[in-house]
Amino acid sequence: MKNYLLILLSTLCLATAFSQEEEVVTEVDSLYKEDQFYGGATYNLLLNSPKGISQSGFSSGFHIGFIKDMPINTKRDLAIGLGIGLSSNSFNQNMLIDTADDKNYSYTALDNNDISYSKNKFTTYMVEAPLEFRWRTSTATEYKFWRIYTGIKLGYVFANSSKFIGESDIKHSNIADFNKMQYGLTLSVGYNTWNIHVYYGLNPIFNSDAKLDAASIDMRAVKIGLMFYIL
């Protein structure tokens, strides 16, 4: 009889221990946050190009950064995101950037001047500050969820360059005619890992000093691609 009692007590002790361990494992964080880091790649387009200017080849953008997620309701499915990041954006097109005799920059539509070339592009490198309003279907235990993030992204161009490869190579950097401050609207929509990302530039890439045939160059950037978020 004593042996049966010892077996029963041992079984009860083990069951209690396992139940306590299970309770610890299933405990959740009621103050969880989402999507603190991001990385993405985009296809870059130019809007409002001057007459005679068009894109050619593949124009790419690469984006990485950190966003502070700040939930604003009890369910924590609504949040504000404020962050900082880096991006590089290239645009392959047919507008040659060169220096004029007076040391100012000149802009020429290559296809209108019968100039042969294999590559012509300009690139910007930016520090960015995204500000987002975030909606998601996540919970403290659900890591695969739908999300819609929309907002505005401010960018500071800390470096730029242009490259022409033809009968002779022409390269320039730190061109003063680029707008230092660039900003636009953003939208990211997706489920789990895959998220479609769109950026629509609200101001021109070049400032008022940049002229093509005596007219301002009012080109703006549109970026379409994929964005990936992790904690």
Keywords:
mainly beta, 231 residues, elongated, two-stranded antiparallel ribbon, Porin, disordered N terminus, 1 helix, eight-stranded antiparallel β-barrel, single chain
Please characterize this protein's 3D structure:
The protein has 231 residues and is mainly beta. It has 1 helix and 13 strands; from the N terminus they run αβββββββββββββ. A hairpin with a 2-residue loop joins strand 9 (181-191) and strand 10.
Structural class: mainly beta
Number of helices: 1
What's the N-to-C terminus distance? 56 Å
What name does the CATH topology carry?
Porin
Query: What share of residues is helical?
Result: 10-25%
CATH architecture: Beta Barrel
Number of separate strands: 13
| Name of the CATH first level | Mainly Beta
| Uncertain spans | 1-9, 11-26
From the spread of the alpha carbons, the general shape counts as: elongated
Order of helices and strands: HEEEEEEEEEEEEE
What oligomeric state do the depicted chains represent?
Answer: single chain
Strand residues, percent: over 45%
Largest sheet, in brief, is: 8 strands, antiparallel, barrel
Chart the SSEs and their pairings.
Layout: H1 2-25, E1 37-47, E2 60-71, E3 78-92, E4 95-99, E5 105-109, E6 117-136, E7 146-166, E8 169-173, E9 181-191, E10 194-201, E11 211-212, E12 215-216, E13 220-230
Protein name: PorT family protein
Organism: Oceanihabitans sediminis
InterPro entries: Beta-barrel_OMP_2 (IPR025665)
Short description, anyone?
The protein is mainly beta and 231 residues long.
